[in-house]
Structures are given as C-alpha cells and as structure tokens.
Amino acid sequence: MFHTCKKWCICCIVSVLVLLLIMGGTVAVVDPYFHYHRPLKELSYRIYNERYQNDGILRHFTYDAVIIGTSMTENFKTSELDQLFQVHAVKVPFSGASYKEINDRLKTAFQRKRPVKMVVRGLDCSMLLDSPDKMNYDGSSYPEYLYDDRIFNDVNYILNKEVFVQMIQNVFLYTRSGAEMTSFDSYANWNESMTFGKEAVDLTYTRREEKEEEKVSFTDQDRENVRENITQNVIELASENPDTEFYLFFTPYSIYYWDAIDRNGTINRYLEAEQYAISLLLKQENIHLFSFFTEFGMICDLNNYKDVWHYSEEVNSQILQWMKEGEHELNQQNYEAYYAEMREFYLNYDYDSLFEKQ
Amino acid sequence: MLFNSYLFILIFMPLCLIGYFGLNRLNQKKLAMIYLLGMSLWFYGYFNPKYLVIISISIMANYLLYQIMMRVGGRMLRRMIFISGIAANIALLVYFKYTDFFISTVNSIADTDFSLLHITLPLGISFFTFQQISFLVDTYRKEVPVYDFVEYACFVTYFPQLIAGPIVTHDELIPQFRDNTKKHLNWENFSKGMYLFVLGLAKKVLVADTFGKVANIGFADVSALDSTNAIITMLSYTFQLYFDFSGYCDMAIGLGKMMNIDLPLNFNSPYKALTIVDFWKRWHMTLTRFFTKYIYIPLGGSWHGERRTYINTFLVFLISGFWHGAGFTFILWGIGHGVFFILTKKFHKRFSSLHPALNWIITFGFVNIMWVFFRASSVSDALVLLNRIAAFDFGPVFRSIVSCFDLPEITLLLDLFPVQALYPNILLLGAFLLALFCVLGTDNAFEKMRKFVPSAGRYLITVILLVWCISSFSGVSTFLYFNF
C-alpha cells in the first residue's frame, strides 16, 4: 500500500487533517452547545448541560426575559412566566453557582446587546456572606472558551471527543428517537424524579446534636462582604441596565435550613446579613425584591421540599404568581416590618418539635 | 507548552519543522539554529514568561564560565572557577526546589515559625541544571571543543528534551546540530519519529491520564481504601508514572527523530526487569548515567572495596531520592531502592537461583511499594495505604474508580454490542490487562523505530491514535453538585 516513507507520512498527515476537519466541521455545523448559531430546524437538541449550553442559549436564542439562579430556579416553567408577564423567556440555571458566576453569565448577555426586558433571579441567602469573587468550582473546570469571543480557543469545543460523543447521543440519536427539542419548562427540571416530604428531607439532614452558643455575630467584615457581594454581583448590572426590570427573590429554604443555622449558632448573623442586603437592594429602582420567608405555612410544610433547601415546582409556580401580584415584594416602607416578623418567628420557633418522634 | 496540547501539535510543531527545514534548505544554517533557539524559548516561556529570565541567566552564566575555563591556564584558578560554577548551579536548584522544604523542616524540628516562601519551581530546572553541570565538568576535564553561544543555548533549550529529559550531553547533541547531513527533511526519519511521537502521545493522553485519575482518587483519601482499592490505587500509579514519563520521552525521541536528531533511550521496558539492578539499567537511563558518571565514579565507584562500593551506591540513591522531590517520602523512596539494590548485589547468587517469574514478582512488587512512597503526600499516608493492602480486607471496587475507565467513546462503541451488563467492570479489567501487556509484551522505543516499515497497520494506528489523542486534550467537566 505504501511504497515509501514519504507516501506513508503524507497519507498519515492528510488523513488526520481530514478526520479532524470532519469532526470539527460536524460539531461547528450541528453546534450542540449553540456556540455559533441557534438550533438547526432539522434536528432535535437535548438541552441538559447548564454550564456548556446556557451561554449559547443566551447568545443565540430569541428571548426578552431570563430566568437565572442556582438549582433553586431549575423547576421554573418559562411558559408560566411568558403567560403572566407577556414575555418570551429562556431559563438558564447554574446548579451550585456563586453570585459571581451567575452575574458574570448574565452580564455577558447584556454585553452582547441582547434585548432583555426582564430578569427573574434567585438569590440564595446562604451565600450572601461569601467573598464577592468566589467561584464554587475549580476555575479550570469552567468552559471559558465557550464564554469568550476568541475564535482560537474554540478548538477546545470543536476538536473535543466528549462533545462529539455527546452530540451523537443528544442530537443525532435523540432526533432519531423522534423526541422534540427540550422545552424550557422541562430543561433541568427535576421535580418528577424526586421524592418530597418529611421522610425525604430527614434522609438528607443530619441535625447537630448540641445547639451551639451564638458564637459568631455579624461583624464589620461580614458587612463589607455582603456589601461587595451584592453591589458587584447584583446591583451594578441592574444600575447599568435601567431599562430592564430585575425580579429578585430570596430562595425560600425549608424550616430545616433555619434549624441548621440556629443549631450552629449563626442564625442572627444570617438574619442581619439578609436585612443589610435588603437595604442595599431596595436603593436600586429597577430591582423588585421579593422574600417569601414570612410565608410560614409554606416554609414549615416539608411536603414542599425534597431536602433542606430545594422546593417543588409548585413553589416555583407560586413564586411567579406572587411576583405578578406584587405579593411579598419588599419596599422601603414595609421591609422593616417584614424583617421584624421574620426575625420574631425564626428566633422563637420550637425547632425541637420538628424532630420529636411521632 | 505541553506536547499534549492543541497549540503544540497544530501550530508549534508544524511551524517549527517548516521553519527549521525551510531555512536549512535555503542554506541559512545559522539562521535555522537561531530559529530553533527562538522556538525552544517560546516553548519554554509559554508556561510562564518569568521562567525565561531564569533559564537565560543560567545559560549565559554557564557559557561565560565555559569561555573563561577555556581561556584560563592556571590550574588553581580553573579549579576555583569550576567549583564556583558547580556551586552556583546547585545553589540555583536548591533555592528553587528545596528552600521551602528546608524551612518547614527547621520549623518542625526547632519549633520555629519561619514563613514559607512558596517559590514556584521553574519547569525542567532539574534537567537543565544537570545538563549544564555535566557540561562544566567536561569543560574542566578539557573534554569540550569550541562551541558558539547559539549552539550551546540550543543544546540546553532544545525543546523536545527541555522539561522532562532525556538528560542529553553536549557531545550527543551539538555534533548532530552541526552535521550537514541532518539538516534536511529525511522522510524515513520523519515517519519513524512521527510514529514514535504518536505512540508516546497515546501513552500519555489515553493511558497515563486515565490511570492518573484512579491514583488521584485513591491517594486523596487513603484511609477510605480497602485492600482491593488500595491495590488498584497502587498499580494505577505504577502504570501512570511509567506511561506518563516514558510516553513523554518517546514523544521527545520521536520529535528529535523527525528533525534527524537522535536522542538517547531513557526507558528500556523497565517493568520487564527481573532484579532491581536490572530495573535501574532500564528506568530513566540518562539519569542513572548522569549519577554514575558525575557522582558514583567521582566518589570512587567500585574501586575501593565492597563496603565502600555499597556506601557509594547508597549515597547515589539517597541523592536521587532528594533530586526527585523535596520531601521525606522521596528520601525514603531513594533509601528503599538503595538498600534493596545493595541487598540484590550482595545476595545476587541467591536471587539468580530463584525462578525468573518469582524474581519478576519480587522486583515488580518492590517497585510498586516504593512508588507508593513516591506518590503519597506524606510518609504516614504511604504507610496507611500499605497497611490497607496488608489488611486483606477485600471489597468491591469503588464506583468512582470504575467510572474512570468509562470513557464516553468506548461506551458509545460498546453500546453497539450486547455487553452492557458487563461494563464498566470489564473496562477496568481490560485497562489493567492492556497496560500489563504493554509493559511486558511490547518493544521499547528504539526497537519500535528499528522495526518500522511504512505499513498499512502502522498507518491506521498512527491516524486513529493521533485523532483520538488530539480530541482528548479537552473534555467536558462534570460539576458535581454540592450544597453551595
């Protein structure tokens, strides 16, 4: 077949280049992560990989509203938001993301001049005290080559066997199976696959045996952290985009969350952090801030939860409804009363009663 | 820059080869060498441009010392220059590699609280320092001809061997740079080099990195291991280290060959060794050569009786351990090998009377145990892992370990066959058997090149492995959910 080394070498090099071209070309044309274009009409795409596909969704999909946040926003249905607010929304949750990560991704969408009228964003109050530059995962694991606009590092995307395999499975085989493209109601939605209720929550929660003394108060350093975190990762974007309405809400964790911070002696610290964050957020006119922690019935009903933090899709639907109706919206006039009511409830709640044997 | 990167394979290597051969074809031989030097510096500086300052100073200082030693006639003065040169090179290495180790040792012994300097170790400093020490020694011994600066700088920075060896000596490399018959593209050498480069790349990317994931899981929490998983962890590191290092050296030799430069063999199928003495003739051969020539023989070698020979041997292994890493685990690794080496020499008749299979098991087992010290983050971690093995508490293989072998492309292929119920365990078993076959049943790099003919089989292997490797440089991360 090969008479000379020269022929052998040239055949090897040409074959490798052709194969790489086919591989890279297919990925670029099909574009399973929507890096170059919106989904091709002829194919069905499974949307499943938040950190790899969300940036493409924000780049190329048609939308005027965005639902974003951690896993607390995964069960939202964009169809409900569309109907309530007459928008066309996409959902881009980032499971386990820090404030900075979420803000960075959202900021990129604005920098690309996407016409965003409305943002619905969940704020996890357990992360209020985090450093403003905190990223929750190892920096090298984020696919930055998808996030930036540099063409040369796209080689990481187009010549990537895992992308190629996933493209075969989640576009070609998915299309062949006759499935429709994932809708934003079902994208990342885990409601159907989880069990809710006290038994399920108890399995995920280990209660501290002894209650810690209130050992850590809200320090000046904490105040500075909250200020920087909220200013840099929430308020700045809102102030730079005054034509966009930001619907922000504190994600309503279960009563077990309050027990956890009560048991480890940090409940006052987190309460004060939330109060300070509210006072900062309310200064920004285009921010609509909601908190549902005074919806005590919902918080204490463990049938709404699968673990300490995560609530069912009914809660997500209810949140959108409340937003539409302006229920639980905080403003300069009512937030002191809200805070006092919440503080009174969670500081005096009989947490032990949650764990008494029936 | 790493060999196993898009930049190297798709941009750097073609540019380097085209530029080097192109300039030589235009009869711009000096310019070709300067181009090669520039490319090598780009290769090195890509890791961290600050490293360029260090290597440049080191090269210029050593070349200056060489020039002075070549000119100075007085014996005492030459000796002084030579000793100060060696001391300066060792001081540079000690500063970057061992300062924090010394500080933390002093802190723990004297209960002091000196701050660590957290010095970043410039890549390849151990290699280029040794290369230059050997050059100064040979200069002092008047064994070095006249080299110009570009030749010398090319010898030290020649990118295939710069960061992980083989440790090449000036008389191996510079005469080849000068040889006019080696300056033009030779398709036979190019094919052999490309073939070896691809095999080395596959060793590194497909094999070593896969076993590396297992080793990382196991060594991250040794106390969680049972005997099964401890053995798998230990073996995985044994394979990872060999395939990683020898793969890198194969790539280096292959790259050299593509440019008609012969680099020395560094690994001669070391896990085939039947005794530890044999192992050290096969493992990192250019380092052993360096230690023999510049430490063992100057210490007296084997010319002063058996006892002195053993002391010299032990010292070489102790230094080798410390050279490999600044930590007590490396020192223990060196001591262990030294002691076993001496025992093997002392009782060589008994060892040679054993069945070769038993000798192989003893040697391979010992090497495995010593690699545990080499890899563990502390001596106690190493002992815990070995204790876990000795406990004979066997359980199922961890899911996290099994899943390391669950490569998506393999799974996709296996999905076409009715074997789903068997994997991923079959993948784990297959990977270990394949690795064992590779280390015991295949030729070394030189034999592969010697037997090379441009066959269809080698064409398929080269094309498939190269495309597979290139597309493995990047991946898709899994973001394991955690509670904020």
Q: State the distance separating the first and last CA atoms of chain B.
A: 35 Å
- Series of secondary-structure elements of chain B, N-terminal to C-terminal: HHHHHHHHHHHHHHHHHHHHHH
Helix proportion range of chain A: 40-55%
Query: What percent of residues of chain B adopt helix (DSSP H or I)?
Result: over 70%
Radius of gyration of chain A: 24 Å
Q: Low-confidence parts of chain B lasting 5 or more residues at pLDDT below 50?
A: none
List SSEs of chain A in N-to-C order. HHEHEHEHHHHHEHHEHHEH
Shape of chain A: elongated
Question: Of all protein chain pairs, which has the greatest interface, and how many residues does each chain bring to it?
Answer: A-B, 48 and 34 residues
Strand adjacency order, main sheet of chain A = 2-1-3-4-5-6
What is the CATH homology-level superfamily of chain A?
Answer: SGNH hydrolase
Question: Can you walk through the features of this model?
Answer:
The complex is a heterodimer of chains A (358) and B (484). Chain A has helices at residues 5-30, 50-60, 78-85, 99-111, 144-147, 155-158, 161-176, 198-204, 220-240, 255-263, 267-281, 296-300, 313-325, 335-348, and strands spanning 65-69, 89-93, 118-123, 245-250, 287-291, 329-330. Chain A has a six-stranded mixed β-sheet, with helices on both faces. In chain A, helix 1 crosses helix 7. In chain A, 46% of the residues lie in helices and 8% in strands. Chain A is elongated and about 85 Å long. Chain A has a single domain (31-355), classed as Rossmann fold, CATH 3.40.50. In chain A, strand 1 (65-69), helix 3 and strand 2 form a beta-alpha-beta unit. With 358 residues, chain A is an alpha/beta fold. Chain B is mainly α. Chain B has two domains: 6-185, no CATH class; 191-470, no CATH class. Chain B has 22 helices and no strands. Chain B has helices at 6-25, 29-45, 49-71, 75-110, 125-140, 149-157, 159-162, 170-178, 187-220, 227-258, 276-282, 285-296, 305-324, 328-346, 348-353, 356-375, 379-390, 399-402, 408-414, 425-441, 445-450, 456-470. In chain B, helix 4 (75-110) runs antiparallel to helix 5 (125-140) and helix 9 packs antiparallel against helix 10. Chain A binds chain B through residues 1-9, 11-12, 15-16, 19-20, 23, 49-52, 70-71, 95-96, 124, 126-127, 136-137, 141-143, 145, 155-157, 159-166, 168-169, 308-309, and chain B through 6, 10, 187-188, 190-192, 194, 408-409, 412, 454-456, 458-459, 462-463, 466-468, 470-477, 479, 481-484.
